[in-house]
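Re: that chain you flagged

S.,

Sorry for the slow reply, it's been a week of failed gels. I finally had a moment to sit down with the sequence you sent. For the record, here it is as I used it:
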Amino acid sequence: MTREQLSGIIGYAPRHIQSIENDVQYPSIELFIQLITMFDVSVDEYIFPNKEVEKSSVRRRLDAQLNKLDDKELSVIEATVNGLCKAKE
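Prediction finished late last night. Pasting the C-alpha cells below so you have them in one place:
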C-alpha cells in the first residue's frame, strides 16, 4: 500500500505518514489505534519489535485465513508449505 492510498483511507496527509515512517514524528493515539487495528498488529509487537511474541501478526492473520478453508484446500496449502520448507533445506 502506498502512502497516498493509506492517506486516502485514514484521512492524514502523505507527508504526515512519511514523518511517522521516518521516526520524525509519532502518531497520535487515535491514529496509532487506527493503524494497529487496520493492519492487525499487536501493540506489543509494535512497541517491542525485537521481543519474541507467541504468535506474530502475520501468523495470526494466516491462522484466521486458514480457518476459512476446508480440508481439501488445506491439503493444497500443506503441500505448498512442505515444498517451501524443502526448498529452504
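What I noticed first: Residues 46 and 64 are 20 Å apart (CA to CA).

Talk soon,
D.
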